[in-house]
From TrEMBL:
Record flagged with keyword Transmembrane: yes
Annotated family: Belongs to the ABC-4 integral membrane protein family.
Protein name per the record: Macrolide export ATP-binding/permease protein MacB
Keyword Hydrolase included in the entry's annotation: yes
Chain ranges of the ABC3 transporter permease C-terminal domain: 289-402
Record InterPro entries: ABC3_permease_C, MacB_PCD, Macrolide_Exporter_MacB
Broad enzyme group: hydrolase
Molecular function as annotated in GO: ATP binding; hydrolase activity
Transmembrane domains' residue ranges: 21-45, 281-308, 329-354, 374-392
Record PANTHER family: ABC TRANSPORTER PERMEASE YTRF, MEMBRANE COMPONENT OF TRANSPORTER-RELATED
One Pfam family named in its UniProt record: FtsX
Lineage of the species this protein comes from: Bacteria, Bacillati, Bacillota, Bacilli, Bacillales
Length: 409
């Protein structure tokens, strides 16, 4: 009963000054909205990136031109400063590197070299820019790509240089809109290709699958006059022992390159490490910057409470004179401060959730998850903030002597 009475008295005291109280609540609400919205966006952004990486499995190893300057480590073991020292060089990767790895390492069950150039693809009355990409039939399985219609090219078609092509979703829409392109002819580099398939839309950080046109590796190398692969992709039998497979791949390719490791290798854990490192850094910066607004809001609460103590001096004196204990006075002002913080936090959470839903409508790739740990953590922090910024006003109220308070005008 005593706690309930204190709570009622606290509410009555606060809303005796509604404008002042609402301004304090608004300060906390804005601070909460900023912090929670930014944290939620970062959480959903990270979840989207991690989901994209995991959607292709955890058995892939990518070989890219360039290297870490501290090349004794792999990407999953490096710090952010080391990641920034990654140097890109002209590619020396070849189709032979890919074939040697597949033949010499039993744990590798798929190999897909990628050679590419930007060019135009034309139909009888339309044209579009595309990433003209040569690879092997393992490519589609490597990235868990699904066909909307048709099929991918075969090993024999790639070896024979058969002019067949598979379109990414964006290229298909630009050239054929909603019509089926199967069996239609498109022209690239003066070569007439027969469309045999169309991929479904596919999203993966760092790769644009939808704006590509895929055919055999050698076809692209010959028609675009290219010698080196832009990247090599390999698939291991299982995620276990991936680091050992990575080292074997590095040895085979380095041997082909005269013992020089002018390339880098990245497994899914390396991509996840990069994502974790960057998002953790951005989150820390965001919390640091927006956290200042919480401090300003807390100071606003303290100011409101100090004014409240001053204006209610006679009331405090009367309560003490009729037998109110010191903890009754202390609890009253702490509850008032906590009430402002928790109410402001709840309003801010509602606003942050609304903005998150709006952002999801504008960018569907970003989910609208509202993590429970962020919500509960924010409410707990608001309560603690109320305690911290309510202590000084409460202590000032405790020092008021009844006789002085009753004389106060």
């Amino acid at each position: 009963m005593r706690l309930l009475r204190v709570f009622v008295v606290s509410l009555r005291g606060l809303w005796s000054y509604p404008v002042r109280t609402w301004l304090a609540v608004l300060g906390i609400a804005i601070s909460t909205l900023l912090v929670v919205f930014l944290l939620s966006v970062l959480f959903n952004f990270k979840a989207s990136l991690v989901g994209q990486v995991q959607s292709v499995g955890m058995q892939q190893i990518a070989v890219v031109p360039g290297k870490l300057l501290n090349s004794g480590k792999n990407i999953a073991q490096t710090s952010l400063s080391s990641l920034m020292s990654y140097t890109s060089v002209a590619s020396t990767l070849t189709y032979k590197d890919s074939e040697d790895v597949r033949q010499q390492i039993p744990e590798v069950v798929g190999a897909a070299p990628q050679i590419e150039t930007i060019t135009s693809v034309r139909t009888a009355n339309k044209n579009a820019e595309t990433m003209y990409t040569g690879t092997t039939p393992d490519y589609a399985d490597m990235f868990s790509m699904e066909l909307e219609e048709g099929r991918f090219f075969t090993e024999q078609e790639a070896k024979d240089g058969t002019p067949v092509i598979v379109l990414g979703q964006s290229v298909k829409q630009l050239l054929f809109a909603d019509e089926s392109p199967l069996g239609q002819t498109v022209t690239i580099k003066g070569i007439a290709f027969t469309v045999i398939g169309v991929f479904k839309e596919k999203q993966l950080i760092g790769f644009n699958f939808d704006e590509r046109a895929y055919t055999g590796y050698q076809m692209v190398a010959d028609t675009a006059n290219l010698q080196n692969a832009s990247m090599l992709f390999f698939k291991a039998q299982s995620p276990e022992g991936l680091e050992a497979v990575r080292q074997k791949i590095a040895k085979v390719i380095a041997k082909n390159h005269g013992g020089v490791q002018d390339f880098g290798l990245m497994a899914p854990e390396g991509a996840l490490h990069v994502i974790d490192t960057i998002t953790d850094l951005v989150t820390a910066i965001a919390v640091g910057i927006t956290g200042i607004s919480f401090l300003v809001g807390g100071l606003g609460i303290m100011n409101v409470m100090l004014l409240t103590v001053k204006e209610r001096t006679r009331e405090i004196g009367i309560r003490k004179a009729v037998g109110a204990k010191w903890w009754d006075i202390l609890l009253q002002f702490l509850v008032e401060a906590m009430y402002i913080c928790v109410l402001g936090c709840a309003i801010g959470l509602a606003g942050a959730y609304g903005l998150l839903l709006l952002l999801h409508r504008m960018f569907p790739v970003l989910s609208s998850q509202f993590p429970a740990e962020i919500v509960l953590g924010c409410l707990a922090f608001a309560a603690v903030l109320g305690l911290l910024f309510g202590i000084l006003p409460a202590a000032k109220a405790l020092r008021i002597k009844p006789i002085d308070a009753l004389r106060y005008e």
